[in-house]
Amino acid sequence: MAEVLVVVEHSGGEVKKVTLEMLTLARELGTPAAVVLGGPGTAAPLVDKLSEYGAAKVYAGESADLDGYLVAPKAAVLADLVRSVSPAAVLLGSTQEGKEIAGRLAVKLDNGLLADVTALAADGTATQVVFAGSTIVKSQVTRGLPLATVRPNSLTPAPAPTTAEVAPLEVAVDDSAKLARVVERKVEPKGARPELTEASVVVSGGRGVGNADNFKLVEELADLLGGAVGASRAAVDSGFYPHQFQVGQTGKTVSPQLYVALGISGAIQHRAGMQTSKTIVAVNKDAEAPIFELADFGVVGDLFKVVPQAAEEIRKRK
Amino acid sequence: MNIVVLVKQVPDSSAERSLRTDDNTVDRGSASNVINEMDEYAIEEALRIQEAHGGEVTILTMGPEGASESIRKALSMGPDRAVHVLDDALHGSCALATSKVLAAALGTLGADLVLCGAESTDGRVQVMPHMLAERLGIAALTGARKLTVEGGSLTIERQTEEGYEVVAASTPAIVSVWDTINEPRYPSFKGIMAAKKKPVRTLSLADLGVAPDEVGAGGASSAVVEHSKRPPRSGGQKVNDEGEGGVKLVEFLASEKFV
Is A143 in Cβ contact with B221 (below 8 Å)? Predict the structure, then answer.
């Protein structure tokens, strides 16, 4: 069976969940082969996890050039690899970097691109959910191989232990790929909460939360449920919570098992970012708020009474 | 510094949007069409750079006849002129073909800096700046929340999952911006009047030396094979809080095994 290349997303020496999801998906399409691209020493700590999820091979592209410039060198190495192994498909995470590499790869190989897919069938047909979650699209590349970015949380990762063979890649990066130089990488402490797009539970606050201080209530419920914190655009624009946590159009798209909307009216732009969540729960004062049209369970009431009571009840049950 | 801002006309994201049933392309006929919101931030950033460093600001749009409305709206914010790539053969173009056409148009404009929104509200794919950079052999600095221009040096700050990055390049380059970068100005009455007289040059595929069979549905590298409306979610249970809304909420979460 032909290889399916899965470009590994990693952070701080750990494989990100979307990669495990892609390896799980790749097994349906061919033989999964992980591609690690990063600075020297990046691959070694990732190999066990990649093996556990069925990577028969780990291609290790390691060079300071891959780390020191924005995506262009990674796309160049990946294009060479695709040309030499002729894979059945190439999968990348539908993250900022994943999409950027995919865009460059599409140009280099003159290959169609399937963006932000939630499923990819063995015949190469991708499923996408577009227009604020209102429309389901099935599409295919008509030139080249299936090259797709996969939306995080689209499937449940399942282990399939094997022993990956590690194959180092030759990394020779041309000067033309070294035009955007990373001068500094700042890591900001984010605590123990899961990453927003990967979390299986997301608790979001909207304008109804009232101010930045009150977001502690949203954080408390998120922590009790082991979830990430999100915010509506109204809350972000009002300065209640930082932009990187914004859910919806002009923010992140999330697809968790459980989405809890607190004081969020549910404008279409917000729904664009959370409509594919499995279960949706809402608390809002306004019984007519559109969020209730999507909520599997809704409480019409004052979130400052309902949420503390819910938090207390969860603690009691623990 | 000469700046080109990429502006895309999109169906209004606050209204119902759909794909056409005849050719699976975005239905622009029934939707009200507007400037892609993120592009307004790119225009604003271009005007601020122009105010500080001089030069010209040009709007570049590829789209059907009706996109000229968005071009006038963009010009009313203050840019000097616009180029509209207009050709019937473009209908149904994929991202790859679009990048080929825009790259050809940019080639004729010779910009020091190309600015665009980080994503469009219809496609949300975020690939265009890197596709263009790849074709033009220039740097792409993407997802900027801050842009600093010093002579021919560009530095951006961009949000990452872990924190943020500072990335630098020399002109010519393409920079995409998020809505955190500035607050776009509203067009003034004077600006709206002036926009009516600003030059808008129309370029066809022949002008750009791109063959019609390289673009449009025929030249597309990917195709929609079918589409359907997602069944709307139906609201489930809704309770009024009469003192135990929080408990009821947790009971629901427990029944779904989240607690």
Answer: yes
Could you say which residues from 99 to 118 on chain B have a Cβ atom under 8 Å away from some Cβ of chain A? 99
* Interface contact flag, B130 A294, Cβ < 8 Å: no
Interface with chain B: mutation pick from A67, A131, A203, A303, highest number of B CBs within 10 Å: A131
pLDDT digits 0-9 by tens, A94-150: 999 999 999 999 999 999 999 999 999 999 999 998 887 888 999 999 999 999 999
Q: Is the Cβ pair B245, A143 closer than 8 Å? A: no
Q: What ranges do the domains of chain B cover?
A: 3-234
Asked if B96 contacts A110 with a C-beta cutoff of 8 angstroms, the reply is yes
Half-sphere exposure of residue A142: CA atoms within 13 angstroms, side-chain side: 19
CB contact under 8 A, B173 and A180: yes
Residue of A nearest to B137 (CA): A176
Please give the Cα distance from B118 to A269 (Å, whole number). 16
Residue A110 burial by Cβ neighbours in a 10 Å radius (0-12, 13-18, 19+): exposed
Q: Which fold has domain B3-234?
A: Rossmann fold (3.40.50)
pLDDT of residue B125: 86
Which domains does chain A possess? 3-177 (3.40.50.620), 201-317 (3.40.50.1220)
Tell me the per-residue pLDDT of A144-194, one tens digit each, with 9 for 90 and over.
999 999 999 999 999 999 999 999 999 999 999 999 999 999 988 777 899
